[in-house]
Task: inverse folding
């Protein structure tokens, strides 16, 4: 009450001296022209608040005041106990102010069993005959000189830690998978780019080879076309030469036959002509000459003249045969 100021509400936890009921007192000063006239105070019971606020909560929840006294608790047997040892001076001060109605402050076992991790620490809490280790998570209530402490079962804490670790592992796996997918996509894109470049180079190389082979094929086709034309021309000439040779051989055969016939015929005809001339000479002396002179020589010279006309044919055949052979 004495710390209350005008325009400012002061909070204070205490146990009533009349009904021995705990409550939270709110006080503010009343002033007039800077002169303090008095103090207005009101008490808020915490039983109903404790029932509705902490009832049904599975975890252990305690509210500690500035002296370390359990003001509210989800465990009724913990309420009103002090969590740390009080000095003689502190006990005398509490006795004089009657903040807890001069009640005997029993001790609640509250021992730290593990190092503190930020706002989290492992503590052993309970009565003398029954204690349990908890993970304590504490925070200061804003505007109040009180501390809210949540006691979590280590099994739940471990389960939560495992869940968090699993979640972190899943997140790490997802991140790793995402990075792997991104890396694979980049690698695939790079491989595709290299494949396209290699394919383009192969295409250009094949294109050059195709053009060179096409030019070679065109030159070869042109050469074959000229070769075929020359072969056709040569075959035509050969065919004409063969026809001329056949005609020449036929003429040669005919000439040889004519020469043979002329030779065979000329011999008896020459003999007959000689005999005829001799006979003419012998018969010139008689009448028989007159009868035979008009017939015999003429008959002998007629075949001889016809045979003589065949000699040029034989000569031409022999000359043509000689020219073809050369």
Result:
């Amino acid at each position: 009450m004495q710390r209350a100021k005008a325009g400012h509400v002061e909070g204070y936890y205490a146990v009533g001296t009349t009904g021995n009921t705990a409550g939270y007192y709110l006080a503010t000063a009343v002033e007039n022209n800077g002169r303090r006239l008095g103090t207005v105070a009101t008490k808020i019971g915490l039983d109903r608040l404790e029932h509705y606020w902490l009832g049904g909560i599975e975890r252990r929840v305690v509210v500690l005041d500035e002296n370390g006294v359990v003001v509210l608790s989800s465990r009724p047997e913990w309420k009103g106990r002090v969590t740390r040892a009080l000095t003689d001076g502190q006990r005398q001060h509490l006795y004089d102010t009657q903040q807890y109605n001069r009640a005997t402050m029993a001790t609640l076992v509250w021992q730290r069993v593990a190092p503190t991790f930020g706002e989290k620490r492992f503590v052993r809490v309970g009565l003398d005959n029954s204690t349990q280790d908890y993970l304590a998570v504490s925070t200061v209530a804003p505007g109040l000189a009180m501390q809210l402490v949540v006691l979590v079962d280590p099994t739940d804490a471990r389960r939560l830690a495992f869940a968090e670790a699993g979640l972190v592992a899943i997140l790490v796996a997802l991140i790793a998978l995402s990075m792997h997918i991104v890396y694979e996509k980049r690698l695939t894109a790079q491989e595709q780019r290299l494949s396209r470049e290699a394919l383009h180079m192969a295409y250009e190389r094949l294109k050059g080879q195709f053009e060179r082979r096409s030019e070679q094929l065109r030159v070869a086709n042109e050469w074959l076309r000229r070769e075929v034309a020359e072969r056709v021309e040569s075959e035509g000439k050969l065919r004409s030469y063969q026809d001329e040779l056949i005609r020449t051989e036929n003429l040669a055969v005919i000439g040889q036959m004519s020469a043979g016939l002329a030779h065979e015929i000329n011999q008896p005809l020459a003999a007959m002509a000689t005999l005829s001339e001799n006979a003419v000479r012998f018969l010139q002396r008689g009448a028989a000459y007159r009868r035979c002179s008009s017939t015999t020589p003429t008959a002998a010279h007629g075949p001889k003249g016809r045979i003589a006309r065949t000699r040029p044919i034989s000569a031409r055949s022999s000359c043509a045969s000689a020219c073809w052979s050369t």
